[in-house]
Design a protein that fits this description.
Number of strands: 5
Distance between the termini: 10 Å
Strand order of the largest sheet: 4-1-5
Oligomer: single chain
Number of helices: 17
Radius of gyration: 24 Å
Shape: globular
Strand content: 5-15%
Largest sheet: 3 strands, antiparallel
Order of helices and strands: HHHHHHHHHHEEEEHHHHEHHH
């Protein structure tokens, strides 16, 4: 791996992309600690930490990479964009125009992306107004200085800054995707999780009164995480290879075909998308609960979706459902079968046409279920352990975080490896 990284740094184009990606992530992390203007910073931090019993609020802070705790310009995080993306994905199956744009290639994708951006800003505006009301409520009781600037002007500045921060995060993520290495939005989530690790390690050590005991518990948690990571990599790289045979045909004076190959179907074809989508769906009740801190029913519902057995059951079901949903969008059995038939290919023992389409669908459904259950269990079990141990490291680097970290790392390494092979270098995967 170190040799592959050294080879990547020798290639000027790759070196610039890697450095550009790291620079954008550094800019993002700096923005997470710059508070919005007009906020009494010290009073806010003290009030936020005293309200840490609100699990919905803690969930929002976790997704923002700790930016919400400081009410920074990036407090809204990447979740408005992810929520907008989920809405657009779902609408593609309902609105024929969006479905047609999705099939038009790059031109149609640009139209969908433009609508997603506007929807992101709209959601960001709603979230910003909600956060403003939250920190002015009795839960926090933050008092704004109105001796120089009136309250309505301060409120407008705060909301505008938060929406601008959302737009900037979206732009930074797209810059990484276009000019850097890997998917920009996924890397921003990656940076949020990594950014919480130092404080989580320290809190884990301080969990018990005995520092040595805290160190031993932390080491044990890290060892368990290191054991789980290879299992996640194994599932992420696992494939079901369907054999495909191509018949011989004569084209001019040349004999074409007659070769055997395979159709690779990943066990976890959706990657970390089901985790991110499920987290975004459960993020919405927590967001609503944060906006209505004085409503007992809304708070109870938000906490139900953010912690406890309600969160475990909903997370498990949503992850499995989104795994099937996203896999159906990635794989197109009808198109695959048509391409095989047009090129003289067939699956041994399966008739071409409708039988091949049904066979591929059945295989996808069978292999998706164990992959979906695996990632759902990895995401839920650490949350259950955290409810009994209150260990900060398990909460921060739980199953969802590990799956996202491993998935994003593998995706980024795969893209970097393809770039290395273009320059005749060995990649990360031997």
């Amino acid at each position: 791996m170190l040799k592959a990284l050294a080879n990547a740094m020798r290639v000027r184009d790759l070196r610039m992309k890697i450095l550009f990606t790291l620079a954008i992530i550094a800019i993002y992390r700096i923005g997470c600690f710059i508070p919005v203007p007009g906020i009494p910073f010290a009073e806010l931090v003290d009030s936020f930490r005293s309200a840490d019993t609100n699990s919905a609020l803690m969930m929002l802070n976790l997704f923002s990479g700790g930016a919400l705790e400081y009410f920074s310009v990036f407090s809204l995080g990447i979740m408005p964009y992810i929520t907008a993306s989920i809405i657009m994905q779902l609408l593609q199956g309902v609105i024929p125009t969006l479905s047609r744009w999705a099939r038009e290639g790059e031109t149609g994708q640009q139209k969908i992306t433009r609508i997603t951006r506007y929807l992101t800003l709209g959601l960001g505006l709603l979230n910003a107004i909600g956060y403003l009301f939250l920190f002015q409520s009795s839960t926090f009781g933050i008092t704004f200085d109105t001796s120089v600037v009136p309250l309505w002007a301060t409120s407008i500045i705060i909301v505008a800054t938060l929406v601008a921060g959302t737009a900037l995060i979206m732009w930074l993520g797209e810059l990484i995707t276009q000019r850097g290495i890997g998917n920009g939005m996924s890397l921003i989530i990656f940076a949020n999780i990594i950014g919480r690790l130092p404080s989580a390690l320290w809190d884990s050590i301080q969990t018990s009164g005995d520092t040595m005991q805290g160190v031993l518990i932390t080491i044990l948690v890290v060892l368990v995480i290191l054991i789980v990571i290879p299992a996640i990599v194994f599932i992420e790289r696992g494939q079901r290879r369907i054999p495909v045979q191509y018949s011989k045909r004569v084209v001019g004076r040349r004999v074409m075909g007659g070769q055997s190959t395979y159709l690779p179907l990943k066990v976890n074809g959706a990657g970390v998308i089901p985790i991110i989508f499920a987290s975004a769906i459960l993020y919405i009740p927590a967001q609503i609960a944060a906006f209505f801190p004085e409503s007992g029913g809304v708070q109870a519902f938000g906490n139900f979706c953010s912690s406890g057995w309600g969160n475990w059951v909903l997370s498990f079901l949503l992850i499995v459902a989104f795994a099937y949903f996203y896999t159906s969008m990635v794989y197109h059995p009808q198109e695959t079968a048509d391409n095989m038939k047009n090129n003289g290919g067939f699956i041994p023992g399966v008739r071409p046409g409708a039988a091949t389409v049904q066979y591929i669908k059945d295989v996808i459904n069978r292999i998706t279920l164990p992959g979906a259950i695996f990632i759902a269990l990895i995401a839920v079990i650490p949350s259950i352990l955290y409810s009994f141990t209150d260990n900060a490291l398990i909460n921060t680097l739980g199953g969802t975080s590990i799956l996202i970290l491993v998935g994003v790392a593998l995706d980024t390494m795969t893209k970097l490896e393809s770039q290395l092979k273009m320059h005749n270098y060995d990649g990360f995967f031997k």
